[in-house]
Amino acid sequence: EKATEAGIDPDTxxxxxxxxxxxxxxxxxxxxxxxxxxxxxxxxxxxSPVPTPTPTQCVxxxxxxxxxxxxxxxxxxxNNNEAKGHxxxxxxxxxxxxxxxxxxxxxxxARLGSDGCLDFTHQANAGLxxxxxxxxxxxxxxxxxxxxASFMSxxxxxxxxxxxxxxxxxxDLRQPLVLPFKWGRKDRDTCPESSARLPxxxxxxxxxxxxxxxxxLTWTDAVALMGAHTLGKGHEEFSGHEGTWVxxxxxxxxxxxxxxxxxxxxxxxxxxxxxxxxWIWGNRNVLMLNTDICLRFDIPEGNDxxxxxxxDNRCDGPRCASSAIVRPEAFEAFERFxxxxxxxxxxxxxxxxEKATEAGIDPDTxxxxxDTCDDEPTPSPPPNECMDRxxxxxxxxxxxxxxxxxxxxRSSCGSCSVFV
Length: 420
What we know:
Elements: H1 2-5, H2 61-76, H3 81-99, H4 139-147, H5 154-169, E1 182-183, H6 204-214, H7 219-226, E2 233-234, E3 243-244, H8 258-265, E4 269-271, E5 278-280, H9 290-296, E6 297-298, E7 321-322, H10 328-337, H11 343-358, E8 367-368, H12 388-396
Antiparallel strand pairs: 1-8, 2-3, 4-5, 6-7
């Protein structure tokens, strides 16, 4: 009783009355017709059930721009570059892990793709529960639940959020990258095949299996998509591999061509770890994985790495051969992206990203952003009354950086006074 009445004005609560003078009576219900039960068709355990209906009805340009602005506000409140890089990189990884399970060779619903479904308990997705969770501690999830869940699928929101990250983190460049977006993806409740399809960091056989064989992309597409490693870092506690792919934590908050310059212009040498071999240069907290190095250099699969990408006094092994013979398209893509301008990489990334985020989805169900959604649901506005418990709810759910809620209780709640 205490719990169900907590915070409610006692004068507005009433005991049950014997009779309500104007209480409506329930109209008689027609007798339902007899139901014929059809035999069910057994479904193989390897095939996921049909996705449940999702709320995607209309997404406008205003909604899409609001997602970008809200993610930008959340990021600006993160003062630590490493944490900010983890936030940015995690959002892109969230969307990427959702589409990297697409298999064009599978049948029916087992094809998967961008469907808002991941197994967050699987080791392949370690670290992503920092980005998407149900315990109220993840700003991105709170943003979705508080402002977009009523009319937008998770799958669409994850892609739109990743697009927002790319635009925000390239906004200080001469020409920021604005990625194409269509809405209409459907969410799925279960996807047991998903995690096993994500690539392991063993080498280019994993890149080929995931991007080329299953997803139907090209080596150029794969190299471009791997360029997103410029954002964020590897975490020893999640993957066993520690370090940024670029020079430092500050660089890991910028989306640009730097991944390709780092790969080709540093003297990377193999480093043994309990999680397997990765690559390092100098004495910095940086890394590359076999799946990165193999795109530009001809290295064997697995942990038995002996060569260095360049010779320096820290490496006494032979110099790694280029991948020009074994993976010519990947090598040529690296050469094209490792230039003084971002445009070649940005153009290729936009093409590859659109292919990947729409893979396996019926084109007829995807729609361009609308100018307005006048007759469609929009995010519910915050309560008009300013009460402490309303502002506390905003703070507890991590929504203070969301435009829709930021002015709530600005005069009476000190916890949101930052927006005054």
